[in-house]
Structures are given as C-alpha cells and as structure tokens.
Amino acid sequence: MQKEEHGKPLYLRSIVIHLSKVLAMVRKLAGKYHSGDIPNLEFNNNKITDIQDISNELAHTFSNNSSSRNYNARFQSFRSQAETQQLDSNPKTMNHTIIYFQ
User: Fold this and answer.
1) Least CB-packed of 19, 57, 86, 93 within 10 Å?
2) pLDDT, mean of residues 80-98
3) 68: CB partners within 8 A, 6+ apart
4) What is the distance between the alpha carbons of residues 63 and 20, in angstroms, rounded to a whole number?
C-alpha cells in the first residue's frame, strides 16, 4: 500500500488534484470560470472595476490604436491610391491555386 499523506492514500490524493484541474478547465470552457479576484483597470487616474466598463475601455483603446489616423502620410497616400483600383471579380480568374512562399 502507498504511503498516506494527510489521511489519504497518495493515489487518491493525485486523483482528487487531477479531477479538480479537469473541472476548472470545464468551467473555463463553459464560460463559468471566475478567478475570484475582480480585475481592475486604471485609466486617466480612475480605477475601473466593472467588467463591462473594462471591456468598453479596452475596445475604445484598441479602436483608437488601430485607427487610420495613426498611419503615416506615406502609407495613407498608398492606401488611398490602392483603394481606387478595381478588383477583378471574375470567378474564373479569382480561383487560382494559392502557393505559399517562405
């Protein structure tokens, strides 16, 4: 028989630990996982603790960061010119094999 630790055989203890890890993964996959601590965000010297407010603030920041206002003038000029070109929408010419080059 295996040694006992805290009154339980070691194999039983390892099963319980493994099962708790599996259940935690199931809760995460189901969207029911909560770490216990409420995350917070500090923005403009304001502490934001509501999850919806944090999500909104992050979305706003990501939107601003990816805005075309952050592109340099050279790229904006290239983009404007490229967007004026007509795309070939003929299915016969569009369905070519794509070759991956490294």
Assistant:
1) 86
2) 76
3) 76, 79
4) 39
- CA atoms of 29 and 24, how far apart (whole Å): 9
Q: Can you give the pTM of this predicted structure?
A: 0.41
Q: Are 56 and 41 in contact (CB under 8 A)?
A: no
Angle at 38 between CA 37 and CA 41, to 5 degrees: 125
Residue 5 sits at φ, ψ, to 5 deg, of -130, 125
Maximum pairwise Cα distance, the chain = 78
Tokens linked to 64 = 């601003």
